[in-house]
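Write out structure tokens for Protein p34.
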Amino acid sequence: MARHTHSPVALQLAMGSLVVGVVVLGLKGFAAWATGSIALFSDALESVVNVVTAVVTLIAVRLAARPANDTLPYGYHKAEYFSAVIVGVFIVVAALLIFREAYYGFMSPRAFVADPLGLAVSVIASVLNMAWAYLLISRGRRERSPALQADGKHLLTDVISTFGVLVGVGLVIVTGWQRLDAILAALVGLSILWSGWQLLRDSVIGLMDVAVDARQLMRIKEIISANAEGAIEAHDIRTRQAGSATFIEFHLVVPGSMTVEAAHVICDRIEAKLREAESDATVTIHVEPEDKAKHSGIVVI
């Protein structure tokens, strides 16, 4: 039975996200309190979602690291997709709360304090978020962790919306138009609502056993072709991605006179090379005699 685990790096990044999320929430909460701005309050509310996201991501990454067992013979990898769905739901809830605050703020405008320290703290929080977002996305791709990548993409959206809020708050200070503060809050809500939709869409695709991308499939075919000496062809190649795990299945046609042991040697050679290229791969090969050849797929001889 295949054993799939995330590297310690993925777990460390997930724990780091929780720490960063709490720090940023504190900074943005202070900025909202110091200025009284509805837009900055909405930005801080989004950071609450970031903390929830970090908690869910940590749980999902730890769960996905569990090895396969008799109950779940294909492993726990899809836990990360479920976590992204949960995060998407929380984002939608946060957006609705923001819309509520924006509505009351627009109907009953209230002045806020252009506190330099509060605004500066908000900028610092955004810089910290941006740095961490890029780290999560780049390392998440390397670790092939949907949960880490989803967390990073959400943080990046947060950075963009915060930048927009700060520009808007500056306009409110210059123009004195208080309703703009509420309008900005609504725009923050729309921004994170879009982010939530993208997370839900990507997670559903992952849960539907999406195939590997075209470049990865080409690499898999090249490895099979280069290491199938002695066989006739490989056809009906199918792949699916589940978090960090890759599942590869295909039929290998061998001469009818070939012994089972000889065919097994070829299969072992192909599997070993595929696992070198795809470190978390499960390979299933169905061996067939030459009369089953389709003369398609990967022709070896």
